[in-house]
Amino acid sequence: MRFELTDEQRGFAASLTDLMRSADAVGAARAWAAGDKDPGTRLWSRLAEQGVTALVLPEDQGGLGGTLVDLVVAFEVLGHGLAVGPWIESAALLPHADGAMITAAVPPLAPYAVDADVATLASGTAGQTLASIDTTRTLVAVAGPDEIPADAVDRAVLAASAELLGAGERLLSDTVAYVKQRRQFGREIGSYQAVKHQLADVRIALDFARPLVLGAALGDVPVSAAKVMAGDAARRSARTALQLHGAIGYTRELDLGLWINRVRALVGAWGSADHHRGVLAELLREA
């Protein structure tokens, strides 16, 4: 099976990428984490104007009538660019045409609402605010949330998988760039076989995860398989990035940590790897 994107899908991805670069998405994420929501909100509005929140909404409801592959394309860009705000909830779980920032709790997969301090809570009553390992978001406990249809939850899991893929790709590309300029013992550290092998392992993991994410979008693969593989690949990319950057990888001044923490949060969000492996095991028993 070939998973080749159309020219329109590649163009859409390029337009979202250009928008996020021009809007300094990383700067907006740092401001968001510091409590200044204005840059992130402006970026949200510009992405919403591109149709991200209405991407998979049917045309007769004011949406773009896009496919789940289109959703994957968009969320890989959002993950690569470190978009802030409850995009999974607003564009995948509860897509809508007006571009509003919407959040929701969907226990047990997503027991807390993300960024309920700035977004509209879809249902239930907001309670205690909790810190997230991802400093670019907040978590809010919600009492009595409405039940969400299974197909919408699957879209959210798929979006999280694509976002993990995008974050993993960004960590890999930044690490490759770093090892090409960091020198030790008179050589670029990227010239050492041990470093090349680690980066090759990440490349392989991401390349193995992408067909499963696209396959889940086409309905040929359980979405749980996409979440497991994308999470494992992104986590490998994050671990390798941290190891190869050395001590500076731990510093707050370096942007690397923003993606590492995003990956750590997303791996556990919308169902842990253990949960989705359990789902896959059950599907195999039923087959």
**Overall average pLDDT:** 96
Using only C-alpha atoms, the radius of gyration works out to 19 Å
Strand content: 5-15%
Structural class: mainly alpha
What's the β-strand tally?
7
How are the secondary structure elements laid out?
Elements: H1 7-22, H2 25-33, H3 38-49, H4 68-81, H5 87-93, E1 102-103, E2 112-114, E3 120-121, E4 125-131, E5 138-143, H6 150-181, E6 183-184, E7 187-188, H7 193-217, H8 223-245, H9 256-268, H10 273-286
Parallel strand pairs: 1-3
Antiparallel strand pairs: 2-5, 4-5, 6-7
Helix pairs in contact: 1-4, 2-3, 4-6, 5-6, 6-7, 6-8, 6-9, 7-8, 8-9, 8-10
Overview of the molecule:
A three-stranded antiparallel sheet has the order 2-5-4, with no helix packed on it. It has a two-stranded parallel ribbon with strand order 1-3. It is built from ten helices and seven strands. Helix 4 crosses helix 6. Strand 6 and strand 7 form a beta hairpin. The model has no long low-confidence stretch (mean pLDDT 96). It is mainly α and 287 residues long.
Outline:
With 287 residues, this protein is mainly alpha-helical. The chain has helices spanning 7-22, 25-33, 38-49, 68-81, 87-93, 150-181, 193-217, 223-245, 256-268, 273-286; strands at residues 102-103, 112-114, 120-121, 125-131, 138-143, 183-184, 187-188.
Key attributes of the depicted protein:
287 residues, single chain, 57% helix, three-stranded antiparallel sheet, mainly alpha, 10 helices
